[in-house]
């Protein structure tokens, strides 16, 4: 009862823009109005309890991507444009993520992703109006967490055309990370064939065939090459946590040492009886490694 009352109060507090009045507002005011509408919608999946409620919440959230895109197209030279494009990317990514979760938890009324063309339109506007900007970092950061291959194409173009070294460095790292995630998704789809239907509806029918066309080996090689370039050319570029070089080096270590099929790094320690051992002592045997902590 209390939770319902609080939601009602929040919704009443939101500013309402009547039809025909939006054009009288500044770009920043129009952006704030969209944000105020989007924020309660973005949390709708958490309160949804039925399959239908989840579907409606996911698709309501996804409808806001086009609103942010339209604002960015309307005011391409205003600072609000890049903020709107960043949010458009986030909305598409959040909708895609929520749709996939709903497919895992629901039994009917499966939601689709954001398939209204917003991802492609966002990329079009970024490359048309902002590809040379030194303020692109928030946009490329959000694309790193996206699922759409349009974002990979965008990051690749920014990497090659943007003149600012910090934007080049983050684009290189984020492109590698995004493609590495897509490689993992491709491998998961091969292991779980039932995901093909989910991918078709969430991302569109061309998504999974497009990944398969790239090929696992070629995609893995490109990912490793991008991480190597990031570590070599942009090591000192700062990101939210550390530097591009530190992040790329960690990713390369994981690829070369911790992926399926690799020989596990040797481990030295004591077993539960206090006896010294090395993991290599058990080479050729089936070994279960169980990591735990008292914290």
List its salient traits:
two-stranded antiparallel sheet; 65% helix; 2 strands; 295 residues; 14 helices; 2 domains; mainly alpha
Would you kindly provide a written description of the structure presented here, covering whatever features stand out?
- By secondary structure, the protein is mostly helical.
- It folds into 2 domains: about 10-115, no CATH class; about 130-255, no CATH class.
- It contains 14 helices and 2 strands.
- A two-stranded antiparallel ribbon has the order 1-2.
- A hairpin with a 5-residue loop joins strand 1 (about 270) and strand 2 (about 275-280).
- Helix 5 packs parallel to helix 7 (about 120-130) and helix 6 runs antiparallel to helix 11.
- The chain is globular and about 75 Å long.
- It starts with a helix and ends in a 17-residue tail after the last strand.
- Residues about 1-15 have low confidence and may be disordered.
Large-scale geometry: globular
| Biggest pleated-sheet summary | 2 strands, antiparallel
Count of discrete structural domains = 2
Strand content: under 5%
Report the strand count. Answer: 2
| Count of alpha/pi helices | 14
Helices and strands in order:
Layout: H1 2-13, H2 27-42, H3 44-47, H4 51-62, H5 64-74, H6 80-105, H7 118-130, H8 137-144, H9 149-161, H10 165-191, H11 195-203, H12 207-214, H13 216-233, H14 244-257, E1 268-270, E2 276-278
Antiparallel strand pairs: 1-2
Helix pairs in contact: 2-5, 2-6, 4-6, 5-6, 5-7, 6-7, 6-8, 6-11, 7-9, 8-10, 9-10, 10-13, 10-14, 13-14
């Amino acid at each position: 009862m209390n939770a319902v009352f609080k939601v009602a109060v929040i919704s009443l507090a939101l500013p309402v823009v009547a039809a025909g009045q939006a054009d009288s507002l500044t770009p920043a005011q129009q952006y704030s109005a969209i944000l105020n509408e989007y924020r309660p919608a973005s949390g709708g999946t958490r309160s949804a309890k039925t399959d239908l409620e989840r579907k409606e919440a996911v698709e309501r959230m996804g409808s806001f991507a086009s609103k942010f895109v339209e604002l960015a197209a309307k005011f391409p030279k205003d600072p609000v444009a890049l903020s709107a494009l960043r949010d458009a990317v986030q909305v598409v990514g959040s909708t895609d993520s929520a749709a996939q979760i709903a497919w895992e938890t629901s039994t009917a009324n499966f939601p689709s992703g954001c398939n209204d063309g917003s991802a492609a339109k966002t990329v079009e506007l970024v490359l048309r109006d902002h590809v040379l900007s030194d303020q692109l970092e928030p946009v490329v950061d959000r694309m790193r967490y996206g699922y759409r291959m349009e974002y990979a194409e965008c990051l690749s173009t920014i990497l090659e055309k943007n003149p600012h070294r910090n934007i080049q460095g983050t684009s290189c790292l984020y492109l590698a990370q995004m493609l590495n995630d897509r490689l993992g998704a491709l491998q998961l789809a091969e292991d779980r064939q039932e995901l093909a239907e989910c991918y078709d509806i969430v991302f569109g029918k061309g998504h999974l065939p497009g990944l398969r066309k790239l090929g696992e080996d070629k995609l893995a090689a490109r990912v490793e090459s991008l991480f190597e370039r990031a570590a070599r050319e942009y090591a000192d570029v700062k990101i939210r946590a550390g530097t591009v070089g530190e992040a790329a080096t960690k990713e390369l270590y994981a690829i070369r040492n911790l992926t399926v099929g690799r020989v596990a790094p040797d481990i030295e320690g004591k077993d539960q009886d206090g006896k010294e051992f090395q993991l290599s002592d058990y080479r050729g045997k089936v070994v279960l490694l169980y990591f735990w902590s008292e914290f």
